[in-house]
Amino acid sequence: MDKGKIKVCVGLSGGVDSSVAAYLLKQEGYDVFAMFMQNWHDADPTLHGDCEWEEDRFVAEMVARKIGIPFYFVDLSKQYRQRVVDYMFEEYSKGRTPNPDVLCNREIKFDAFWEIARKYGAHYVATGHYCRKEEIPGTGIFRILEGADPNKDQTYFLCQLSQEQLSTALFPIGNLVKPEVRRIAKEADLPSAEKKDSQGICFVGKVDLPTFLKQKLASVEGDIVEVFDAYYADNPLYQWQQGTLTGLLKPGNSLERTVHYAPEEKILTSDGEPLGESPYGEIGLTDEDLDRLATPVSYNITFETETYRSGKKHIKKTRYKVNPYGVIVGRHEGAQFYTIGQRKGLGVGGHKDPVFVIATDTEANRVYVGEGHNHKGLSRFCLKINPEEIHWIRTDLTMKPGENRRYRVRIRYRQPLQSATLIMRESGLYILFDHPQRGISPGQFAVWYDGEEMLGSGVISK
Description:
The protein is built from ten helices and 21 strands. The chain is of the alpha+beta class. It folds into two domains: 3-213, 3-Layer(aba) Sandwich (Rossmann fold); 218-462, Beta Barrel (Elongation Factor Tu (Ef-tu), domain 3). It has a six-stranded antiparallel β-barrel with strand order 16-19-18-17-20-21. Strand 1, helix 1 (16-27) and strand 2 (31-38) form a beta-alpha-beta unit.
């Protein structure tokens, strides 16, 4: 079909990436128009953000005028509130860690937004994501590949898209690196050429996330408990997991306990090897054993009090007895405001190494922390995804119960891919990593890749 007869709607955000996407499509001869979507109302009576969407809309409109394409404004704040914001609050209230950006793409940009674009006659919707799309010749099956810029790859945020959504999606800048995108914008004299990249979740903007959450989730003070190594030495589940993992290893392999971490980059590093053979032998575990292997250690440390006399006047006071398993090191304003792996905002001092959240208990309203990057409670080898939460982009590659496969996996944006074995059972999908993974948190999305192709994803249940 003549490109001039193909109508493409570009989601123009006011940023440089979507601007260049629109510019390139126009240069290629497509019939392009732009839509700017408002996802948040500053006038909302109960929740307040700092999105500065009006400025973004102004820039987007100038970009459309410069390129010479029609510009439309669409208010999707109602859909965003129902499908993304309410979900986010519900997840945080349960002590889980959702990713609103993933939901925004699935529910808004490639669903609600696309429905409106189609009413304007669009055949495709295009965005400024750094990723690539290919169609397998003669099959009607679409592949989504990592972007050419390894520092900007955004496939993770698109991990819940379906084949139907991919069939009408375009990613014009997926083959470019960020400096090249900036160069194109500057040479085309686009108003967004020097605009800084947006940070955080769009509707939250510059507002601190816990501050935003407190507008709807009640603040209730509770204890911050530091967990000592002695707890794991006496914890049956932890000891069983270590013994089971050791028993699965092939001869000549040892159970690694060190998490590869680059503090200066604030990211977990890759395991340093291409996907090869698993360090584990035959995984002849029952569903119950796999479930237990994926279960995070829980903490039930009780603190008893004792009375003592202090000072010259022997004033009677109360203190906690020394506990070999842990100590209360501070107070928090609500366990639901913290996530596993979090370091900032704890207000816990007096430690040589950084202190991290290793677990939260929203029912008991407790936050558990551990000192150091290699604290035993900070990392795990195995996670589980419930059957109803497993999503295959490549539906033709869906795993069947009893099947194991080797893939590369990430559990957060920008985390280098990690080697792992995917184990499909009736009870769910289990991901067993070759090396320990830090900060696995329920609610996050685990995403798996074959080479540079993203195949599927799922919400971590535990």
